Amino acid sequence: MISRRAKSIQPSATLSISSKAKELARQGKPVINMGVGEPDFVTPRHIIDAAVKALNEGKTFYTPARGIPELVSAIVDWAKRERGIDVKDENVIVTPGAKYAIFEAIMATVEENDEVILLDPSWVSYEPCVQMVSGKVVWVPHSEGFEDAPLEDYVSSKTKMIIINSPSNPLGVVYPKNFLKKVRDIAVDHDVLVLSDEIYDKIVFEGEFVSPVSFDDMQERTIMINGFSKTYAMTGWRLGFAIASEEITKHMLRIQSHSVSHPTSFVQYAGVAALKGSQKCVEEMVAEFRVRRDMLMRGLDEIGLRYAPPKGAFYMFVDVGRDSMEFCKELLEREYVAATPGSAFGKAFNTWIRLSYATSRQNIEEAIRRLARFIEA
Ligand SMILES: Cc1ncc(COP(=O)(O)O)c(C=O)c1O
What we know:
The chain is α/β, with parallel strands linked by helices.
């Protein structure tokens, strides 16, 4: 009864850890969750107020599939302000979360057996998105230091897309300009699309965030993905967007209009408030993430665990030197600290784990203590 397409998708490797963490918390155990990829901050007040206002004003009807004109226009302004590019409404699509923008973009462009290049390790949902359209993922290892990768050795006549995520989940790497220039050269020379997932663009502590669209000839072949979940602590609202060529957004729009129709009406008004309102809330959250990152790095240094030094996002990818699934299970059972096994993110990181520091300073301090005890035992 089940389609080949659905069967091709593996259950999330992180599911058993997160459901176990929830179960232990229900039993009253002092679980510290460093497994989840969501800010622990409540959405800023002016954004909540905008949604409430929209509801009170009766903004409860269907909206255009592309998104409400006010939000589309705010995104056009955002593109000029943040990326220095001129885009039209026709280049924009507002989606229920960045994840759905990624899914639509892949659905709209990748054919059966097309190859999609992913850097190893990468965020957990890219591979299933490609599998759902019967595309083929080609994993490319990072070079030493995680800031470069030999893409040129893996590109072929079948390559349709390269997926770049900077700052990256799970590494926290902010890819340097010379790597993105290489991505640009390969994309242009081989006529390949670049899906640039920029959802952590505002959470940068060191280095400079560079988007592929800042290079010549890249605007047409880049599908830029962004969203509100991480920058504005709006994970549950489900709001994201994509900027791409008119041709690509036109086809994403067809998929959207015949599936989810559009993102929730009043949530889109909250999105307008987020983009047009004061960005001080973002600065404050990023400053707090930086303090937490530094705490966690110091703690791991003291324990003597190796990690990829994160320059952005809110994750730390840590080498624990043994099977990551077992490590995470035992860490949760014995010390009630939830982490994500590295095996969820690619092929070569079976002995690494991802710790999310989107949790309070007290939690991070306590998690370091428990981790140290766990390692010593
Ligand atoms: C790299 C990356 N892209 C996309 C998403 C999805 O974000 P959204 O909540 O907007 O769907 C996430 C969320 O974890 C992410 O880490």
